[in-house]
Amino acid sequence: MSKLTLSRISKRFSGRDAVRDLSLALDRGEFLSLLGPSGCGKSTTLGMIAGFIAPDAGDILIDGNRINDLSPQQRRIGLVLQDYAVFTSLTVRANLSFGLEVKGLKRGKRRQAVDELARQLDLSDLLDRRGGSLNMSEMQRVALARTLATEPELLLLDEPMSNLDAETRARLRGELRQLQKSLAQTVLYVTHDQAEALSMSDRVAVMRDGEIVQLATPHDIYHRPANRFVAEFIGDPPLNVIPCDVATDAAATAIALPGGAVLRSSALPIAPGRHWLGVRPHDVELVATASPGAVQAPLRFVENFGARHVLHAEYASDLLRIEAVPAARSIGEMLHLRFTADRVLLIDRSSERVVPFRQLEAAA
Amino acid sequence: MAAQARSPAIPRFVTARAFRKLVPFNVAIALPAQLTVLTVVLVPTLIVVWLSLTDWQPTEGIPWYRADLVWFWNYYDLFHDARFVAAVARTLLVVVACMAAEFLLAMGLALLFLDDWPWRKIAVSIIILPMMVVSVDAANAFFMLFNDRGPINYLISLIIGRPFEFAWLSDPTWALLPIMLSEIWQWTPLMFLLVLTGLMNLPENQIRAAYVLGASRTRIFLRVMLPLLMPVIIIALLVRSIETFKIFDPVYILTRGGPGAATETISMFMYNGAFVYFRIGYIAAAALMILVVVIAICFALSRLLQRHHR
Amino acid sequence: MFGADKAWVRWLKRTTVCIAIVIASFPIFWLISTSFKPVDEWQKFPPVWISSQPTLQNYRIVFAPKAAQEFAAKQQGAIGYKVSGSAWKAFGDSAIIATAATVLSVLFGTLAAYSIVRFHTGGDSYPFQFLTVRMFPPIAVVVPMVVLFSMLRLSDTYFGLILAYTAFTLPFSIWMIRSFIEEVPEELEGAALIYGMRPLHAFLKVTFPLIQGGVLATALFVFILNWSEFLFALTLTTGHVVTVTLQVANYVSASSGKLYGVQAAMGTVSTLPVIFFGYIIQRHLVRGLSFGAIKR
Question: Which option is the CATH number for A237-363: 3.40.50.720, 2.40.50.140, 3.40.50.1100, 3.40.50.80?
């Protein structure tokens, strides 16, 4: 049975639907991210699971038991908020043992548990410091340790990295994931940062306007996005979206790109006409000279990220982003580009859904 | 002379310039406040120091600066003056009792006003009414309430079932109670406001975090909220105990320190000594003693506060 | 925030609040009610909660000396009555003294506060020096002040009392206005200074308009303190200057406190301005009474 089950929960705030008919099942020991832009309802969902917001409809179940009527105190759920909310007037040690005091653990046992936890999260030197004197990343560890001390059934994290600098974030992602694995802690992680979600999670739920748009593994989210929103939201630099013309018959589908190249695949459930083609900058190949299946685009400017360049070339009255190996290039130079087979995404214009296809061959 | 034949404004201009050069601008504008305080506070303090060393009584007809010096005998007498010692002890008792009552009542009441409920604002407005009453009028009201045949005795007689006509203000043991009640009634609302302000400024997320960790309301209050409230509580207690220590108006209106000297607080003792018995020199010594102690305590406490702030 | 209370807890909370409201308002209610009672209801037992024959007689006695004299004559010594003068004089004197002292206190206080905040005049401890003034038990200062005033011919004068009140409310003025000025960033005046304005000018044109509300609140607060003041009025005057607080005390002492109705009338009338102003500056009371330390 899953650890956490959300069954058709919804919440309305002053005329606006914050969460709409949302369902989700989280397995024991799983790390699942709720990923989406601000206002998509992820924090509201967290608030309902924690017990601070009452859902208008739907059930929340832990290990199969309905917890809607339990107060936050009674649910054995851990919560780390965005600002960490460390008890500023207590020492770090008092912070960590707070949950254990609540449980009634004796002093000796408490001390043992706190010392062990402090060791795991590298807080041993800080135990006697006052909560209010810590810096952001120290506070985050204290908040985490404090809630792990109570061995919660489920750990909720609300954008815990957003107050930290980029370098610390990059380092902490790995550490947090390792810690979670070693404790086999079930985690629901809320974030708007797709790099965090993709790198840390077992599964990712992409949310938009109160609904889950796609729930899948990071690999599938990246390579098989369900629709245009997911495809564009995931990936850095962002997806290129190119207008194309689709012609279908019973046997095959032909996708005509601006500039002449044509892609072919088996018959696809898509109406003929104008649609979109999504190509990740990483999946655009630079070829030396004009060749069949390649398109031409003049280079307009280059973003230099050191280890890689992102080239912006003019194509189909828009700028196409291309990730490339650093090399000397001149503005205005004509680039010859080919889109990697099997990696492009065909987006149905009307439904905005991605239509999976297998490319048969490329022809001029 | 030619210079004087010119505009007579020049000498004034020169003097003003000189003043501006001697006295920096920022000091000049603080001067009116400083001078007022110096005149009204410092000079009298110096006079007190002088008077405390004399045995001046205005009834003797000699001006105060020609009074006989008795050096430190006033202080010696004060230490051995049972009435003075009693007044000090009594004042401390009043301060501690009033502070405790005001704080507990204020805290309890403030907790009830944390959440929003209908008519909360109106309730707050009514509860702070006592604060805004002139203190002699409040004392006056309590004077009438504690009359032998007044409403308080009537209510008590309703509760205990037989007639109750206790003369509160003439009873040596109990007369202090109406005085303290008048003070507590008038100033608990202030404590209430201060504590409520502190409570409403508490970081909500820390309380939420404690809640999720499973803590009961009591535990959250004692372990999370109170420590965060400490600065506000300290300031409130500090400010109020200083003011309570000086208590005078209710004592004067309700009992004048009587019956006998049963409700004499320090202020009343000094008032009686100076304006009823005219022993100015003696009272000056008492005043100086009190002054020194109060300044010392406040100095120490303000250092504590300054360090806490840093 | 803590979730819904159980029903009996909610009932308990509501009842407690009601009791608090009753206790808070009862003495005032009694004062006002008694002020409308005719003589025969003053000492009735069981006490009269609200008069059945309300009268303005008490107010007439308080305000009109002629009515007072008639009343005293009627009593024929049954209730000793020796208070002369009408409340008009008391109100007038209180108004003059309180207003003048307030103006001076706020004026000096604003200048000093500005000096302290922008120029750090006198260092860190300077503001605390003004605080110690407030810590002096007034009685300790009153004794030598009587001596001093008699030397300076300031006894029983308006000016003497105004001076004393100004000095003792300066700590409040300075600390309160200081907290208001601190909320206005220095850069605003700095911009004016760059344009060549003199510092005081910059303060008056730029910062002062922004703290106007706060200064007004401070003024009303100080006015309330001055109006309610009793000890100085009692000791520094000998009959020529009479404030409302003194007048109230006179009624109580003159009759051994037996003139309930009249006392109540004087009390009601003298406390009304303070209640009125108090409610106007309600928001700033916390800041004022904690010397600017605690703000909403």
Answer: 2.40.50.140
Residues of chain B contacting residue A145, judged by C-beta atoms under 8 Å apart: none
The DSSP output letter for A122 is: T
Collect all residues of chain B within an 8 Å Cβ-Cβ radius of residue C23: 185
Enter the ipTM.
Answer: 0.86
CB A250 within 8 A of CB A258: no
pLDDT tens-place string over residues A253-275: 888 888 878 888 877 888 888 98
Q: Is the dihedral of CA B155, B156, B159, B160 positive or negative?
A: negative
Which chain B residues in 78-107 lie under 8 Å from chain C, judged by CB atoms? none
Among C28, C43, C107, select the one facing B149 at the smallest CB separation: C43
Mean pLDDT of chain C: 84
Within 8 A by CB and 6+ apart from C128, the residues are B302
CATH number at residue B197: 1.10.3720.10
Q: Is C57 in contact with C38 (CB distance < 8 Å)?
A: yes
DSSP chain B: -HHHHS-THHHHHHHHHHHHHHS-HHHHHHHHHHHHHIIIIIHHHHHHHHHHTB---GGG-S-GGGPPB-TTHHHHHHHT-HHHHHHHHHHHHHHHHHHHHHHHHHHHHHHHTSS--TTHHHHHHHHTGGGGS-HHHHHHHHHHHTSTTSHHHHHHHHHHSS-----GGG-TTTTHHHHHHHHHHHHHHHHHHHHHHHHHTS-HHHHHHHHHTT--HHHIIIIIIHHHHHHHHHHHHHHHHHHHHT--HHHHHHTTT-STTTT--HHHHHHIIIIIS--HHHHHHHHHHHHHHHHHHHHHHHHHHHHHH-
Tell me the average pLDDT across B116-141: 89
Q: Which residue of C has its CA nearest to B32?
A: C108
Rounded average pLDDT over B112-126 = 87
Is B219 exposed, middle or buried (CB count within 10 Å of its CB: 0-12, 13-18, 19+)?
middle
Which chain B residue is nearest to residue C236, measuring alpha carbons? B275
Contacts of A211 (CB under 8 A, 6+ apart): A20, A21, A22, A41
Q: With contact defined as beta carbons under 8 Å apart, do C296 and C286 qualify?
A: yes
> Which H or E run includes A318?
strand A318-324
Cis-peptide, bond into residue A326, ω within 30° of zero: no
C75: confidence class by pLDDT, cuts 50, 70, 90: low
Q: Enumerate domains of chain C plus CATH numbers.
A: 7-60 (no CATH), 87-289 (1.10.3720.10)
Superfamily holding A4-232: P-loop containing nucleotide triphosphate hydrolases (3.40.50.300)
Task: Report the distance separating Cα C52 and Cα C40, nearest Å.
Answer: 11
Residue C183 or residue B71, greater confidence: C183
Give the lowest-confidence range in A92-96, A224-228, A250-254, B60-64.
B60-64
Question: Which of C 83-112 lie inside 8 A of B, CB atoms?
Answer: 104, 107-109, 111-112
Please give the residue range of the domain that contains residue B188. Answer: 83-134+176-309
- Bridge partner residues of A248 (DSSP): A253
Question: Which of B206, B214, B224 minimises the CB distance to A73?
Answer: B214
Q: Which residue of C has its CA nearest to B48?
A: C144
Q: Is B27 exposed, middle or buried (0-12, 13-18, 19+ CB in 10 A)?
A: middle
- Start-end of CATH 2.40.50.140 domains in chain A: 237-363
SS3 label, residue A86: coil
What would the DSSP string read from start to end of C62-90?
Answer: HH-HHHHHHHHHHHTTSS-----S-HHHH
